[in-house]
Write a structure and sequence with these properties.
Mean pLDDT: 94
Distance between the termini: 47 Å
Shape: globular
Largest sheet: 13 strands, mixed
Low-confidence stretches: 328-333
Structural class: alpha+beta
Strand content: 25-35%
Number of helices: 10
Order of helices and strands: EHHEEEEHEEHHEHHEEEHEHEH
Radius of gyration: 21 Å
């Protein structure tokens, strides 16, 4: 599909030019990297890595990455899958980054207006609503982020007594945390993920995805798995993505039969300690549904505050009909 110049749709992006853009864009996340895109085209046979880009003499001045899947009933355009961050990124030092972001978003809007697009999603961390074209409707959500520093002891001391007490409680129960270094342990994490996601009413992601993350993102230091164990048995765990001094908690999991042992509190404390010691400056504890009061209190108890996330989701009429989301037609008077 041809977009209105000066932006272009490339499928796939030139890997060297894209990696150079990501390396030079201050707002890039791990989910903008080519490694993340390659993971999805391997996980979903037939999926394509595409991008709306603004070319210049040095490669790309800006870009917005996409994973595109074609199906019998239409096309899905995801930036990026499962609500992971994408959004437009601009090379550092550009004289007018806002204008570049607008051009990229206009190109995205043109792409998702296509008749074949059944579903489109874009999740923009700290997005700028005033840069969105009028036809792109965004809902405001939030994630929880807290700053880090080298002194983890002082950080913990500044938290409430109840948070520190739950961490000590987990230690007193004999819980331990260890990094996952063997692919076989990913199965333990996945089993807990299935249990956790179903408990929350969601659809668990397949084991193959977590295995691909372990194989492709853990070795270069873009992800880490941890397990919480009690008497040699895994009762909790976490998957974090790590990039440029920022860590993001993608999914903390636990066996609900052992929640009173406080595995979630211990794993957050241990991961935060490791991040502080490694010089990380920020910890993103992840998004929460607005009505998940208990989860929000848990994250804010760790000193995290809300950061804006713009969610742009569009469903075609056919998609809504197939999902039963259309209101019933009024009957005769």
């Amino acid at each position: 599909m041809k977009l209105t110049p000066p932006v272009e749709l490339v499928s796939p992006p030139d890997p060297a030019a894209w990696d150079a853009l990501v390396a030079e864009a201050d707002d890039a996340t791990v989910f903008h990297t080519s490694a993340w895109a390659r993971l999805w085209i391997a996980e979903w046979p037939g999926a394509r890595w595409e991008a709306v880009v603004l070319p210049d003499g040095a490669g790309y001045a800006g870009g917005l990455g996409l994973i595109v899947r074609d199906g019998a009933l239409g096309r899905r355009v995801m930036a990026m899958p499962y609500g992971t961050y994408s959004g437009p990124i601009v090379r550092r030092g550009h004289p007018d980054p806002a204008a570049v972001r607008r051009q990229l978003l206009e190109g995205y809007a043109q792409l998702v207006r296509h008749a074949w697009v059944m579903l489109s999603e874009l999740t923009w961390y700290e997005g700028h609503r005033d840069e969105l074209p009028a036809e792109l409707i965004a809902a405001e959500n939030f994630t929880h982020v807290r700053p880090l520093g080298p002194d983890f002891t002082s950080l913990m001391r500044a938290l409430s007594h109840s948070v520190r007490a739950r961490v000590r409680q987990a230690e007193d129960y004999g819980l331990t945390v260890r990094r996952v270094t063997d692919a076989r342990d990913v199965r333990h994490y996945h089993a807990l993920a299935v249990r956790t996601v179903r408990r929350r009413g969601g659809l668990p992601k397949p084991l193959t995805l977590y295995q691909r993350i372990f194989r492709s993102l853990v070795p270069p230091g873009l992800a880490r798995y941890d397990l919480v164990e009690h008497q040699g048995r895994a009762i909790g765990g976490s998957l974090h993505f790590t990039y440029r001094g920022t860590a993001l908690n993608w999914l903390t999991v636990s066996d609900d039969r052992h929640l009173l042992l406080r595995p979630n509190n211990l794993i957050i404390a241990r991961v935060m300690r490791d991040l502080c010691e490694a010089g990380y400056h920020e910890y993103n504890l992840g998004g929460s549904p607005p009505d998940a009061e208990g989860l929000i209190r848990f994250k804010e108890g760790w000193g995290a505050t809300r950061r804006l996330v713009l969610d742009l989701r569009q469903r075609s009429l056919l998609h809504r009909l197939l999902r039963g989301e259309m209101p019933p037609r009024p009957g005769p008077p």
